[in-house]
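Supplementary Methods, section 5.1.

A reviewer requested that the exact input to the structure prediction be made available. We therefore reproduce it here, unchanged from the version used in the analyses.
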Amino acid sequence: MKVLMICTVPLSGNGIATCVINYATALAQKTNMHVLAPEGVPEGTQQTLTQQGVRLHQLPDRKTGLKAYLAALLRLLRQERFDVVHIHGNSCTVSIELLAAALAGCPVRIAHSHNTSCDHKKAHRLLRPVFELLVNGRLACGQEAGKWLFHKKSFQVLRNGIDLSGYAADETQRAAIRQQLGLTDNMLVLGHIGLFIPAKNHKFLMQIAKSFADRTDKDWKLLLLSDGPLMDEIRQCVDQLNLSDHIIFIGRVPNTSGYLQAMDLFLLPSLHEGLPFVLVEAQASGLDALVSDQVSTEVDMTGNLQFLPIDDPEIWADKILQSAKPNRYQHSQDACKALHDAGYSIEGNADFLLGFYTDLLSKKH
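The structure derived from this sequence is encoded token-by-token as follows.
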């Protein structure tokens, strides 16, 4: 069986990318795995995929030239003749990839929903009839994400599986990253991981930071991981709010585990999410988290998440003040067990996904 996973966003620094990389590498020893992503895949990611036996294809981003992208995609699909095309996205705009797959004669065309909303709602609505006509496999990271993209059609939930052991509490990693960043043992370290895009709500996060700064004389920092189009705007916001002494822009990193270890509390005030990959990772590392109430509560497998409204930064600041450092090792051990039992282990999920492909393909022959 020959499978192509399509990542509709950059293959780095976001949850969809992490999901694609995790599943492609987990399946590469069991079937012929290919990954398609926009140009600009980091060298480290390219090496990881190649070493694990995954073949990578890079095309120009569809946002910069849709006709050229569609033509290049169609050429690739006709040349390689995949049995399964598995498209990761969050709206009916994946109809572009579904159409190319259908025209190339691909029998199994899977849409995989990773969010509960999107930034292009008009295109999403207009493309729904095309989407419904072309899709014949439906997956979602959670119930709410599935309902968003598939409405009343049936779908399978595939949890965002991770290598749980890779995120378990690790004092050596914690000490190394904190030393690297000049963070003292007693310093309170808050953290956020997410692309600098509107949905991640960084401006509100800065309001939280400002409110917290005004309420405490604690020594603290906020780590911001990843990058994106709004990064410069948020840097300006940090300067305007006089938060430069407290905010550390880390940028994109190939592995977030060490940075999660270095944190004491995770913050995720998103405007909308599916089932955030980063919250699975944060829980596995033993972190408590303050999370937007616009995020589905089904992501809380450990009882270590608090869901808060995103219209009042002072509520968040108060919760940060009330937070206590947990026993990270025990928190992490308990969380990894709970996440495994809830279906977030990459090994079992990869087997499920391979069976899903096989069942759909058998029905087409």
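The chain is about 45% helix and 20% strand. These observations are discussed further in the main text.
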